[in-house]
Amino acid sequence: VNDILDYYQIKNKKIRLIMMEFNLKDKLQEIHQLFEVQAQMKNITLNMKLNDIVPQDIYSEPTRITQILNNFISNAIKFTPSGGNIDVYVCEGTKPQSIRFEVRDTGEGIPPHITENLFCDFTRSTKTNFSNPD
């Protein structure tokens, strides 16, 4: 429910960000611990790598960073087969004072016929709709 409320706040440009200084390395370790057991239960290796160039103490919105990474990692675990890998990389962004977060997995990926609706309201991809529509 909170994700839906956040979505509408973002869409209506009324979301309130609470910016603060926090330790990014600690936040990543916290997120890793949250998903480590889930990944191990599926025999998935979960790696998190913070590039040495990225400062550990940053000024940003830790709740939103956590929310976004949780969603990506949760989906990666859901769609990565047993024995697969999930790698979370945190590195310098392309703009000054920006950070890039990448989540890569060895899952099957999203088929092209699904990607056209990926960012539409309440569109969701599941294994059942991955089959080719033809």
Biggest sheet: strand arrangement = 2-4-5
List the total number of helices.
4
Question: How can the largest sheet be summarized?
Answer: 3 strands, mixed
Mean model confidence by pLDDT:
86
Low-confidence stretches: none
> Which strand-content bin applies to the residues?
15-25%
Oligomer: single chain
One letter per element, helices H and strands E, the order comes to HEHEEHEEH
Rounded Rg: 16 Å
Structural class: alpha+beta
**Extended strand count:** 5
Instruction: Tell me the span between the first and last alpha carbons.
Output: 34 Å
Give me some keywords for this one.
5 strands; single chain; 4 helices; three-stranded mixed beta sheet; 134 residues
What does this structure look like?
This protein has 134 residues and is of the alpha+beta class. It is 37% helix and 22% strand. It contains four helices and five strands. The protein has helices at 2-11, 24-41, 62-79, 112-115, and strands spanning 20-23, 45-50, 57-60, 85-92, 99-105. The protein has a three-stranded mixed sheet with strand order 2-4-5. A hairpin with a 6-residue loop joins strand 4 (85-92) and strand 5 (99-105). Helix 2 runs parallel beside helix 3. The chain is globular, with a radius of gyration of 16 Å. It starts with a helix and ends in a 19-residue tail after the last helix.
